From TrEMBL:
Species whose genome carries this gene: Aquicella lusitana
Pfam family, one: DnaJ_CXXCXGXG
CDD domains in UniProt: DnaJ (cd06257), DnaJ_C (cd10747), DnaJ_zf (cd10719)
Localisation: Cytoplasm
CR-type domain ranges (all copies): 126-204
Keyword line: Chaperone, Cytoplasm, DNA replication, Metal-binding, Repeat, Stress response, Zinc, Zinc-finger
Quaternary structure annotation from Swiss-Prot or TrEMBL: Homodimer.
Protein's name in the database: Chaperone protein DnaJ
InterPro entries: DnaJ (IPR012724), DnaJ_C (IPR002939), DnaJ_domain (IPR001623), DnaJ_domain_CS (IPR018253), HSP40/DnaJ_pept-bd (IPR008971), HSP_DnaJ_Cys-rich_dom (IPR001305), HSP_DnaJ_Cys-rich_dom_sf (IPR036410), J_dom_sf (IPR036869)
Cofactor: how and how many bound: Binds 2 Zn(2+) ions per monomer.
PANTHER family cross-referenced by the UniProt entry: CHAPERONE PROTEIN DNAJ, DNAJ HOMOLOG 1, MITOCHONDRIAL-RELATED
Role noted for this protein: Participates actively in the response to hyperosmotic and heat shock by preventing the aggregation of stress-denatured proteins and by disaggregating proteins, also in an autonomous, DnaK-independent fashion. Unfolded proteins bind initially to DnaJ; upon interaction with the DnaJ-bound protein, DnaK hydrolyzes its bound ATP, resulting in the formation of a stable complex. GrpE releases ADP from DnaK; ATP binding to DnaK triggers the release of the substrate protein, thus completing the reaction cycle.
Gene Ontology MF terms in the entry: ATP binding; heat shock protein binding; unfolded protein binding; zinc ion binding
Length: 369
């Protein structure tokens, strides 16, 4: 297989510093690592190529030989897995991916997650919420270094600042976290009295969060840099706010639309009329036509929820429920009885009943009951 120029593989110049090569390699290894690109043969091959290039360019003697003789000068030193050090492979997997490698420098702060409960009205129209987050913040006394003011952490003498040590077991080299610096690569001999060398301390942080119009349950808002402070002044994590919209007494939401059940009287259903129904931003007049059946849904355009991504708002859908009168007086019952007698015997006033009874009759005839 044709080998590519190692400098081109890593995307660095031929006079790149060791630190630049190391930094670029870590970024590319994270991107193409097999654990992050499972069942992707192209990414696996790219990862091997990146690893091979780094094995050569990170070693001063191999790099000098490669600069002078090209691939011929390093044949056998780095060739797929045959030339790789298994200790380095373990170090990449458990260090860069899982955060256990001290040589990667101070660790970025952890991301935080917070569930924010809001009302339907707040979800529809937006709001600014004040929240309190328990988190780790950078120590102001030592600016996150962990060392007393005027002092500085020193490079660990046991691992040389790499954060890991290697032990030879027969043909294998095993890489482990340095016990002296716990993988940090640095040792603090004179710790800060405020944070006791940790560089961070726990604190409740008050934040103001702007909730946009139209958010719904399950939506997330990301606040960059508002997570936990990183180690030794490293970048902080992010804060992810999960939205949870509380149930509403009148409305149910489905995307951009709002649904509302509206009870109407028997008389209104028969004769028609005008109702005043609620909307989130006021009241709406709803015209009910004569002979309205229960379950009929009326749509009020534009009275729903605005889209969080812009565009027209949804609609308000009002589903009427014809309510059977209760607690009738004797007089009212008498009037209803008289009304019933005026109804036609052929069910022309009750088309659904007529259709249903015809179906029942056919069913009995088919089943020979």
């Amino acid at each position: 297989m044709t080998k590519h120029d190692y400098y081109e593989v890593l995307g660095v110049s031929r006079n790149a510093s060791d630190e630049e090569i190391k930094k670029t390699y870590r970024r590319l290894a994270m991107k193409y690592h097999p654990d992050r690109n499972q069942h992707d043969k192209a990414s696996e091959d790219k990862f091997k190529e990146i690893k091979e290039a780094y094995e050569v360019l990170s070693d001063s003697r191999r790099r000098a030989a490669y600069d002078q003789f090209g691939h011929a000068g390093v044949n056998g030193a780095a060739g797929g897995f045959g030339g790789m050090n298994f200790g380095d492979i373990f170090g990449d997997i458990f260090g860069d991916i899982f955060g256990g490698r001290g040589g990667a420098g101070p660790q970025r702060g952890s991301d935080l997650h917070y569930t924010l409960e809001i009302t339907l009205e707040e979800a529809v129209y937006g709001k600014t919420a004040e929240i309190m987050i328990p988190t780790l913040v950078q120590c102001s006394e030592c600016a996150g270094s962990g060392a007393r003011k005027g002092a500085q952490p020193v490079t660990c003498s046991d691992c040389g600042g790499y954060g890991q040590i290697r032990m030879q077991h027969g043909f294998f080299t095993v890489q482990q976290t340095c016990p002296s610096c716990q993988g940090k690569g640095r040792v603090i001999h004179d710790p800060c009295s405020s944070c006791h060398g940790r560089g961070r301390h726990r604190q409740n942080k008050k934040l103001s969060v702007k909730i946009p119009q139209g958010v719904d349950t399950g939506d997330r808002i990301r606040l960059s840099g508002e997570g936990e402070a990183g180690e030794a002044g490293a970048m902080p994590g992010d804060l992810y706010i999960q939205i949870q919209v509380l149930p509403h007494a009148l409305f149910e939401r489905d995307g951009k639309n709002l649904y509302c059940e509206v009870p109407i009287s028997f008389v209104t259903a028969v004769l028609g009329g005008e109702l005043e129904v609620p909307a989130l931003n006021g009241r709406v007049k709803l015209k009910v036509p004569p002979e309205t059946q229960t379950g009929k849904t009326f749509r009020v355009k534009g009275m729903g929820v605005p889209s969080v991504r812009g565009g027209d708002p949804g609609d308000l859908l009002c589903k009427v429920q014809v309510e059977t009168p209760v607690n009738l007086t004797a007089k009212q019952k008498e009037l209803l009885t008289q009304f019933e007698k005026t109804m036609s015997a052929n069910n022309k006033h009750s088309p659904k009943s007529s259709s249903w009874f015809n179906k029942v009759k056919k069913f009995f005839e088919d089943m020979k009951f």
